[in-house]
């Protein structure tokens, strides 16, 4: 299905837009947002003939792009005017003064249309410094054929998952078949997993007052469940402790697991024509613990667009930014390019009827949570390392859960003391 902006809406937009004369530079990779970039640039330049936009096609390798940005922003270069940042960079860049606050450039209605969980990742000192462009996140995939075979409902809680796993694995009676697989190697994905479990139990990285509280009772309980899932319930293979996203996906795709918890990129290979589980799986939001049905248990990622504080054309850049990320453009990118929108209202649009999978991912993002990069800024990489290490210590039973999270708490408090 193709979606185009109705002629009337386009005419209204053309008459309502302010007039600018500027030369702008946009930095974004050619792969991440795909053909939407070319389409959006052509559309905007047609609407604003006095504005020219140069597309600086930076590397799609995040580390390479980050180095380029750091060099340019440290030197206070006025270009690029608009640039794309990873979700976990936004907080650091804002704290370092490398992103222009948007609250004075865009109205609150424009900013408020975006997913609030994602906006939190670019909010520092109560100011939004970048707008989310497209999203991804962790989801809970399940073998729909096996749930049907054993007369089971789709699990909503982790308690449901344990019960369903026991029923299926006992019924399959295959020692090479497991109830659950995920990415529990000592990588960023492990911390994302932990945030999903912790928030799903009413916990999280911060407490209600915004203080670091990784050793809270709710977090200890959720982490103990992760340990028990492996060592007591024996739902997962020992190899989960070394598994990365594609390792987990491979086991599930081989038909060797009932449940899989990883990012949404796995949907395409799982549903490919030659996939052993094509037509035999589905997905839902990441489960929560009983009594926490409103928990934000979907750990989200994504990319944002922000404005260079050294830009000589901030107003024009802000107008372009608002247009590039607007609902109409996000809807087109969703329908034509399969990019997950960051404005939740897009998922309810009738044009999304042709992409039920993406619309379903979007509903999961109603329960989104992001990593604590906005609050920890340049310390975030070390924050993640500390959490990965101590979660790993608990999962390997080298420390008790309480010991591991107490140690993490102490290290984080020392790190963030300044």
TrEMBL record:
<dbReference type="GO" id="GO:0042597">
    <property type="term" value="C:periplasmic space"/>
</dbReference>
<feature type="signal peptide">
    <location>
        <begin position="1"/>
        <end position="21"/>
    </location>
</feature>
<dbReference type="InterPro" id="IPR006059">
    <property type="entry name" value="SBP"/>
</dbReference>
<keyword id="KW-0732">Signal</keyword>
<feature type="coiled-coil region">
    <location>
        <begin position="391"/>
        <end position="418"/>
    </location>
</feature>
<protein>
    <recommendedName>
        <fullName>Carbohydrate ABC transporter substrate-binding protein (CUT1 family)</fullName>
    </recommendedName>
</protein>
<comment type="similarity">
    <text>Belongs to the bacterial solute-binding protein 1 family.</text>
</comment>
<dbReference type="InterPro" id="IPR050490">
    <property type="entry name" value="Bact_solute-bd_prot1"/>
</dbReference>
<keyword id="KW-0175">Coiled coil</keyword>
<dbReference type="Pfam" id="PF01547">
    <property type="entry name" value="SBP_bac_1"/>
</dbReference>
